[in-house]
Amino acid sequence: MLFKRYASPFLILDEMINCGKLQEFIGYILNESLEETQWEYWLHKVTAMSFKEYCEACKEKDRSYGMTDNDVSRVKEMSKRILNKINPGRG
Question: How far apart are CA 28 and CA 9, in angstroms?
Fold first, then answer.
């Protein structure tokens, strides 16, 4: 991702580390990359809505993928059963 934008990403990464802003920089790069991917997809595949509407629809979909407490408990139990099959003496 960084090699696409910068000739030498190591220099900018070192500078962000020195400034104490590496986490902010990574967040910025990830957001920019996501927006670029959304733009490319919308440009070639989506015809029924504006780019802004498409981005809002994507945000709504992202919110719906969260797990409920019930889902988390169910996954934990399934994981324990799988691990007990591998090593039955534990658990």
Answer: 14
